[in-house]
Structures are given as C-alpha cells and as structure tokens.
Specification:
about 325 residues; Rossmann fold; 2 domains; 4-stranded antiparallel sheet; globular; 11 helices; 6-stranded mixed sheet; Alpha-Beta Plaits; alpha/beta
Length: about 325
C-alpha cells in the first residue's frame, strides 16, 4: 500500500450502452505531485475525471480519494477537490469579480473572507486590472484563468484540470503553466488531462498515457522515453501518396512504425538521418509530391506512436 497516495484508482471500468469508455484502469497519484493523463480526444480521460469528481458512477472498480471512497463519501470528496472543466463554466454577462463572488457564495464564503479570497485569486491569475470587465469581452485564455480561480475559491487540496490549455493563446498558456506550478509548490496535488504534448512535458511529474479507454504506460517523462530507446521520428507532409511507397518504407531495416494520416506520414526509426535520403527516394520515385519533411528527436509523440502504432490524434 502506498501511504503517499492521495488518489488510488483500481481496475476502473465505465460502460455506456455497451461501449466501454474506461477499461480496467489503475493508477495512484501521490500527495503534492502534478499527474497527467495524456491521450487523444476520445481516449477516456474526461470520463476518468468525471468519475473522480463523483459526477459519474463507475461500472466496476474502486476510487479512494484522501481516504474516502467515491461510492460512500462523495460529499466529503467534493469539499476537498477543485474542478476546472474543459468547457468554460462561467457567466459571460457578469464580470470576472462578479463570477468569483457568485461561486464563492455557493461554497459558503461571505463578507470579508470572500472579498479577500476573490482579490487574492484575481491577483494570482493576473487579471486584477480586468476584474470589472464583462467576461464576454475576455479572450479564451483569460476566461480559462478565471475558471481556474473559481475552482480554487474554497482552497481545495486537489485540483482537477480537464484540457486546461485548449484554445488559449501562447501568453495565457504560459500564465496557466505558472499558476499550476505555483499551486503545486504550495503543496497542491494536481491532476490534468491533455492531448497536448507540451502540457505533459512542461508540467507533469508523472504521466499516464491513455488510449481507447486503456492505460498503456505510466512513468516519469524520462522513464517513458527510455521505452523508445534511440528512435527518431520523421514527419512527411505530402500529396498523391499511394500505398506502395508506404509499404516499401515499412520494409526498410531500421524502420519500426509507419502511420499515415490525411497526407501526413509519420515514420519511427533508428538512425533517422542516415535513412532520410532513402525514404525521400522511395517517395519521389513513386510520384508522391513531398511538401515538407523534418526529423524529431525522441519525445512523448514518438512514444505514443511506439506504443499504439498511431500518432497522437487531436
């Protein structure tokens, strides 16, 4: 038994009308860590978050959060978690301050305590100067920052973020990263879901890779990349691709995996630079029109292709 675990998920299963959205997933999240669920849209990440929020009942399996079972003590759990959903859950005809005051009252805050907490959170997300502007005039990134502030009003021990940087500008993305890291340094446990490689690479102490409802790998980023070894990724953007050159590339000695997705060929292989000329020759001699080609060093995208045989879908 891991005494450091604040969340323990064992053999979690969720089925909808015969469809298995989560299929036997198990993991533990330690107190004070940033834990990432990385996978494409439709992988089951949001379903897992919804179960951990006590919004969905699992079909099978168990979840214990800070000593409380989600089936028996949901009310206790809801008091210690903050949730930032994928969709913005704010009132766009209210100001940022009015939104936070409204949600603060729902959490039971009032008077000076509520005012002090709202001001502190506006400062934390960098929006004090825009606090009295209507949210309908905010950018997507600014709305998401206020959404994070709303989830923190009751000072939760655990923060869930479902795709926290989807649709945000680079400046807001950096601000969100800084906010998450600052909260974590103060001792907060963070669980985030993402299909963005950058989120997982920049933020997470450990990463669980999820695809088609299954957990297929879990480790630190360094540990996960060791599964790939010395592989490179070659990305080719092309038109008029026929099956024949793809099959020839698959048969090359150092090629490990090849995926084809709407005019993009992704090739995982050892010693990519040495094989690059041969790959270009195969493509061009078959009539394929190569528009761009580049090599990437091993990263989480390489790992996802290595484990699943497909590139990480958006």
């Amino acid at each position: 038994m891991n005494t450091d675990a604040i969340i323990t998920v064992e053999n979690l299963v969720k089925r909808y009308n015969g469809h298995t959205a989560v299929d036997g997933v198990s993991f533990e999240i330690n107190r004070g860590e940033i834990f990432g669920l990385l996978g494409p849209n439709g992988a089951g990440k949001s379903t897992i978050i919804s179960i951990l929020c006590c919004l969905l009942e699992p079909t099978l399996g168990s979840v214990v959060i800070d000593g409380s079972d989600i089936r028996k003590n949901a009310n206790n759990i809801k008091k210690i978690i903050g949730v930032v959903p994928q969709e913005i859950s704010l009132y766009h005809t209210l100001t940022a301050r009015e939104n936070l005051v409204f949600y603060g009252k729902i959490y039971g805050l009032s008077g000076r305590a509520l005012k002090t907490r709202v001001e502190a959170l506006l400062d934390m997300v960098g929006l004090t100067e825009r606090a009295d502007d209507l949210l309908e005039g905010y950018s997507g990134g600014m709305k998401r920052r206020i959404n994070i502030a709303a989830a923190l009003l009751h000072e939760p021990r655990i923060l869930y973020l479902d795709e926290p940087t989807t649709g945000v500008d680079p400046q807001s993305r950096r601000r969100i990263y800084d906010t998450i890291q600052d909260l974590n340094r103060q001792g907060m446990t963070v669980l985030l879901t993402t299909h963005q490689m950058e989120d997982a690479e920049k933020l997470c102490h450990r990463i669980a890779i999820v695809d088609k409802g299954k957990l297929i790998a879990l480790d630190t980023q360094k540990g996960l990349l060791e599964l790939v070894g010395e592989s490179d990724l070659i990305h080719v953007q092309a038109t008029e691709i026929s099956p024949d050159p793809v099959e020839l590339i698959k048969r090359m000695p150092d090629v490990q995996k090849v995926s084809l997705d709407e005019g993009n060929i992704t090739i995982q292989l050892v010693r990519g630079r040495e094989s690059l000329a041969g790959i270009i020759d195969i493509l061009t001699s078959s009539g394929t029109r190569v528009e761009s080609i580049y090599i990437k060093e091993p990263d989480l995208e390489t790992l996802f292709l290595h484990l699943t045989g497909t590139s990480l879908r958006g």
